[in-house]
Amino acid sequence: MKIRKIFTHCLLALTCGYGAPTLAHAAIPNGTNTASVRGISSSQSQPAAFSNTATVYQDCNFGGYAVGLGVGNYTLAQLTAKKVRDNDLSSLKVNSGYEVVLYENDNFSGRSIILRGQQSCLVDSAFNDKASSLRVRTATPTFAPPQATIFLPQNNMEFAAPDSVTISVRAISPESFGGVAKVEYFSDGTKIGETTTRAASGRYDYVWSNVPLGTHILTAQATSYQGVTGPLSAPVTITMWWAPPKAQIILPDNKAVFTAPASVTISVRAISPESFGSVAKVEYFSNGTKIGETTDRAASGRYDYAWGSVPAGTYALTAQATNFQGFTGPLSAPVSITVKDAVDFTVYANPATNKVYVVSSAKAPITSVQLYSVGGRLSSAAAAGEVNISDLYDGLYFVLVQDAAGNMQKKKVVIQH
User: Maximum CA pair distance of the chain?
Assistant: First the structure.
């Protein structure tokens, strides 16, 4: 608590002059002949606060000396010149629209505090008798930082690759705080771009190209011309997927059988939405190895490839389509074919008398020989390459031969006893 030295001509218990207690003339730092004691004042009253931007007071509740200050910066030396003592301020009044910044040390250093309006006691602010320099200035506006809201795309929207995504942001910042200088855009926390231009719609748009497949969380952030950056916008989730071109083998049929050296036409139905570039080519594979490709669609609407001189063996055929934008779809479902060695059965003797013999050019054993009359009646049969015909009538017969590999041929024989 401040104790000011006051000199009096009379004790409080005595009377001076006409019996009213009076105080001697005292020098006050602000140069005014004024003195005060709690409850007692001199005949010369304390002057009113100066009509300046701010008035600082020595004591709490606007007591003690009072010094008016205009807008400006005041070091300790400048305050002393205005009769303000070091570490001696306890209250102040600030005109509307202005503020005072108190500094704990000289030359505007150390701890500081910004004060506005009437501050009756700086004890509560932990700045009582602490100021060694100060500034009086126009009040810094209290404002909300610029705000950004993603207008488009809407939350949980889906896009088909390779679409681009336009991120349209509504950004606001009062012109008094500089307006919006730029808007930044983020995907999954990583910046993907920014714009400084407001579109005719009033929004800030950014076109995100080459969007990776998958789910992404978009946010945006606005910065004012005063360099104040606002918070991230509420997140918006999008998903980028794609419909790849697809291929389906129509021919040959699954488990089809061919004879070597075979010529196999592989006919494929391939589709790709026009928005994804349509079908540019179809590739053909046998047991995982590419055997050819075509870029032409046949009159049937399918993509055909002639696979020639196919040797004996079993093959899993697949196909794969690629669109004009370079996206390649998955392999088609496999189609299995079998190519067998060429087999020829020989029937002798011909004409035959008592027996018919059949031999094969292949290694597979003969498993069935059947003789049919011209009218189609089964006349005789055997499980091997020898048939007894001694009881058959003379005439022309058809011989149906089959071996263990599934090869089958029809021959003719004349029986003549």
Answer: 180
